[in-house]
Amino acid sequence: MALWGGRFSQAADTRFKQFNDSLPFDYRLAEQDVLGSISWSRALVKVGVLTAEEQRKLEAAMQDLLAQVQADPEQILQSDAEDIHSWVESQLIARVGDLGKKLHTGRSRNDQVATDLKLWCKTQGAQLLLAIHGLQRQLVAVADAHQGTVLPGYTHLQRAQPVTFAHWALAYVEMLERDYSRLQDALARLNLSPLGCGALAGTAYAIDREALALDMGFAGATRNSLDTVADRDHVVELMNCASLSMIHLSRFAEDLIFYNTGEAGFVELSDKVTSGSSLMPQKKNPDALELIRGKVGRVVGAQMGMMMTLKALPLAYNKDMQEDKEGLFDALDTWHDCLDMASLVLDDIKVNQARTLAAAQGGYANATELADYLVAKGIPFREAHHIVGEAVVYAIQVAKPLEDLSLAELQQFSSVMAEDVYPVLSLESTLGKRVAKGGVAPDQIAAALAEAQSRLAARQL
Ligand code: ARG
């Protein structure tokens, strides 16, 4: 039975019912709906709507229902109830009869759905924080194992200056750190309870909304009923957290897809996260990473969709807002899956240190060092830059790295070149000179690693 039958004399068209029902997706709010209802029943005792005895009976039935939905949430899908709120109410009526019909006193589905969804966001948000943390730990472990692994660093996908594999991994730890704190901020902001705002104007019972909020685990109650039932900022914010983090994950995926190519050969991905070709027997494709890279599209798309749904919606609740759930669920599920999958990829990744070293040595990545050397000998940087450019052209012609050119060859470009140029051209020297905070000097990387390790260890999970 629908919750609102009294005013209607005709049944809904089955096609409209199907179009209107949200149970096929909002069944995922079952736990939150029951928990919110338990708190609501307690609040109703304080305003004299329920006796303590009635509340005890109702709460027992709701605890029973909670256990049932926790054990098998999909069972809800068998019902043809309109939404999860109707389903919970009908289940209570089936268990405790007319008493179940008292629970909705003073409440609207508008404040109820807002409450359920925020409770769901809190639970899901906590899971996502854990998943981000888990991936950060994996990256730190990779960094620890590869402090000395030289990797060519790129700009414009041209070999630019050498870095280390540790430095690469720690770059993603930083991106995820921002994702973590962005999500924490969003979760803190949404931590106010809508319940007791009624349909839009507030409830006509003198509910202590602050106490009710605390009972449900919120930090407090929202301030304006009209805003509260119309507000889905938190949905957009969480989707934005997901979008930006997915953009980070797509860059992580793309880096590794490139490192894994036959041409680069810097890493080898495990059989556990790759797949073969039905036609070409030699292939081992980086599907896990490609899917991470690809799924950013649907997450960003869901955020855009939600923002368009909310644009110019008049206050307060409108049925348009029922469109909030599928996109949010999908965006957060996808983000969680991708964080997990990225961890799995790192689990068994093999880094080919000989290949990364050869590539770092081969790309004239020490050309800046040679320019700095000339500067130290008194040549203005712009001139030094030009001289080294010519030397690189020559080195490419004779197919040698700069450090393999003889002194006589180097002196064709500048007479200030001397024997002391060779140590400057070594990878060790190139890396070792980046001593300022955030650079690739071994001491800096060791410090960055130690700092990341202690930051993660100190985090309250
Ligand atoms: N299924 C609805 C939603 O998800 C619940 C709120 C319905 N409120 C209403 N006034 N019809 O938004």
Automatic annotation (TrEMBL):
Residues 364-430 form the Argininosuccinate lyase C-terminal domain. GO terms for molecular function: lyase activity. It comes from the Bacteria. It catalyses: 2-(N(omega)-L-arginino)succinate = fumarate + L-arginine. InterPro entries: Arg_succ_lyase_C, Argininosuccinate_lyase, Fumarase/histidase_N, Fumarate_lyase_CS, Fumarate_lyase_fam, Fumarate_lyase_N, L-Aspartase-like. Its EC number is 4.3.2.1. Its main location: cytoplasm. It is found in: Cytoplasm. Pfam families: ASL_C2 (PF14698), Lyase_1 (PF00206). Pathway: Amino-acid biosynthesis; L-arginine biosynthesis; L-arginine from L-ornithine and carbamoyl phosphate: step 3/3. Keywords: Amino-acid biosynthesis, Arginine biosynthesis, Cytoplasm, Lyase. Residues 6-301 form the Fumarate lyase N-terminal domain. Belongs to the lyase 1 family. Argininosuccinate lyase subfamily. This is Argininosuccinate lyase. It comes from Pseudaeromonas paramecii.
